[in-house]
Amino acid sequence: MDTQNDQKDGKQQSGAFLDAETLFSGSAVDESVLLEMAQAGVLYGHKKSRKNPHFDEYIFATRNGIEVIDLTKTLKAIDIVSGFLKKAIEDKKTFVVVGTQPASADAVRTLSEALGGCSYVTRRWIGGLFTNFSILSKRIAYYKQQKEDLAQGRLDKYTKKEQLLMKREIEKMEHKFTGVENMTQVPDIMFVIDGSPKGHATAIAEAHIKRVPVIGIIDSDDDPNDFAYFIPANDHARSSINWVVDRIISNLK
């Protein structure tokens, strides 16, 4: 039984749920929606020289050296991902949304709210957040306590110099832990915006180690094999990211 589960998990992580046959089946695309997506820049990938070879089947064409993403596949993928997330919400699964580039910050927080006010990361990924959670959770608890003590005036008993040092420590922890301060366990699902190695390789690797399914909005330079479910789309432009996230949220209602 464990072997069968391992095989199933391996298939999910390979991105096999989004093969070409699945994406094309039963699609009736509204041209006005495609135009809206194009105007938001959803179709723009990276330069052809940066393309991940596993992303080939999600490319519609190459224009002036830039890969153009197949928007019909993007729409189908959004429906699939939305369905997965909706079922996960019904099953009371927990989430963390990760997007550390400035262009995705608003979308990360918006999607976090739509997923029940779940944890999120908009700055640098905290190394060990999944793989060393038992230790980091103590540090997060300490941050919350210090923040509460400051708000309640409990630090007033210390000297001005001591208070200054404590406030600086709280500010550093706030920069690090904002978004994950209410995380009480390793989440069941990770949603990542941009799966590039320079962006979220560590977060994705930790999710795989802890056997947490990774869902993502990924571009032509990303590897679909890192994801259980994914949406091929421009993941570096604010307008594109917001369009995709808004569409997901609309589907969840």
Explain briefly what this protein structure is.
This protein is of the alpha/beta class. It has helices spanning 2-13, 20-24, 31-40, 71-90, 105-114, 133-151, 160-177, 197-209, 238-252, and strands spanning 44-47, 59-63, 66-69, 95-98, 119-121, 189-193, 214-218, 229-232. Helix 5 (105-114) links the parallel strand 4 and strand 5.
Describe the structure.
- The protein is α/β, with parallel strands linked by helices and 253 residues long.
- It has helices at 2-13, 20-24, 31-40, 71-90, 105-114, 133-151, 160-177, 197-209, 238-252; strands at 44-47, 59-63, 66-69, 95-98, 119-121, 189-193, 214-218, 229-232.
- β4, α5 and β5 (119-121) form a beta-alpha-beta unit.
- α6 (133-151) packs across α7.
Write the layout of secondary structure elements.
Layout (H helix, E strand, L loop, with lengths): L1 H12 L6 H5 L6 H10 L3 E4 L11 E5 L2 E4 L1 H20 L4 E4 L6 H10 L4 E3 L11 H19 L8 H18 L11 E5 L3 H13 L4 E5 L10 E4 L5 H15 L1
Parallel strand pairs: 4-5, 4-6, 6-7, 7-8
Antiparallel strand pairs: 1-3, 2-3
Helix pairs in contact: 4-9, 5-9, 6-7
**CATH class group of the largest domain:** Alpha Beta
Unreliably modeled segments: 1-26
Just name the CATH architecture of the largest domain: 3-Layer(aba) Sandwich
Number of domains: 2
What key attributes describe this structure?
single chain; 253 residues; alpha/beta; Rossmann fold; 2 domains; five-stranded parallel β-sheet; three-stranded antiparallel β-sheet; 8 strands; 48% helix; elongated; disordered N terminus
